[in-house]
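Lecture 7 notes: from sequence to structure.
We start with the chain below.
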Amino acid sequence: NFRANFSTDSAQVQPDIALDGRNRYVAWTDKRNGNWDIFASITQYNNPTLVPTPSSLKFVAEKGKGFPPTQPVVIAHAGYNRLSYEVRISVTWLSVAPDSGLTVDTVTVAVIDTSLAAGNYSGLLTLVDLTNHDSTVDIPVIFEYRAPNNDTVRIGSAQTTLGNPVSIPLTIIASDSLVGVSLPIHFDTGIVRVDSVVPGNNLPSGSLLTWSIDSVGGVVSMTATFDSLTPLPTGLHQLGALWLTGRGEGQAHLDTTHVDSIGVSIRTVDGTTRIPVVQPGDVTVGLATDVGDQTGTHLPSDFALGQNYPNPFNGSTVITYDLPRPGIIVLEVFNILGQKISTLANQYFPAGRYNAQWTGRSDRGAEMPTGVYFYRLTSGRTSLVRKLILLK
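Predicted structure tokens for the same chain:
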């Protein structure tokens, strides 16, 4: 069904052929150069890869009302050969059955932990190709765990520049009168420094706001307590504000879901403890452009491409890269099929550290769907590639 050699003007004898499921190997003896030599031909005839359907999952449930319905994932393959696979899970609140098998197969994915705090969670199912060991596919998973009674804590967003302070409002929507709020907030210590917490102006008399700042771990823990005779009434209130100072160019994510919302709680006047929904915020430090200027006087020693932050992301993400020498660099985003989605940079840069921002859109402005993408930094003959995840 094929030809391994298109030369017909010499002696060719003793052919042999072998297959490995991907490539076809043909070897023979050949006298085209006047002496007997060994010739070989290697041709790819098959490209087996794992193909899951759907390519992403989203679970939705309300806290206190049981588990969300399970969801099936069909694991098929491209190419001629069936593939042996294994499913690996990045989080403890998910399960999958079976966790291995042979394509075509169907696995059932389920949320198994209802002790989680209300909030938004993300994880990955990774399909590992055990047959060829070179085909893996990530399936992003979102779990939207809604709080009852619509209790919500909002963390504001702001922009500032290096060395300058900025205020981030902290507000709460309470569906009942409250006597206590516990709110740990995580921040990127390389981007911002938390200086203090200021109480809100219209809190009830007798209220007390305390906080502690872990500058190493990047956590500010805030507790508000209210007298049972003068509790925080239902409605929208400003608990206080975070005062931050920019210390590194980029975008710092302010959220509690960094540790799966552990520690976030409200306490009502009847003694009930509930978990509110937390709406995270962001602080952008530096110029509000896609590509920032270098942030320090020390030049990088190596050509490097950092992992984007946040990852997974929804809205925008920041990519940091180091250039030890000046030159023309190209930073591009590709989908999982290798198709270019967006060009974030393509110009001459001096040596230094830079940031680029991707908003999850193509060069034509189209919003990209949830999935796995790759970003590649190229300078001369050197290229670096990393993976990012867009969740919606």
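Points to note: The CA atoms of residues 121 and 290 lie 28 Å apart. Residues 287-297 have pLDDT under 50 and may be disordered.
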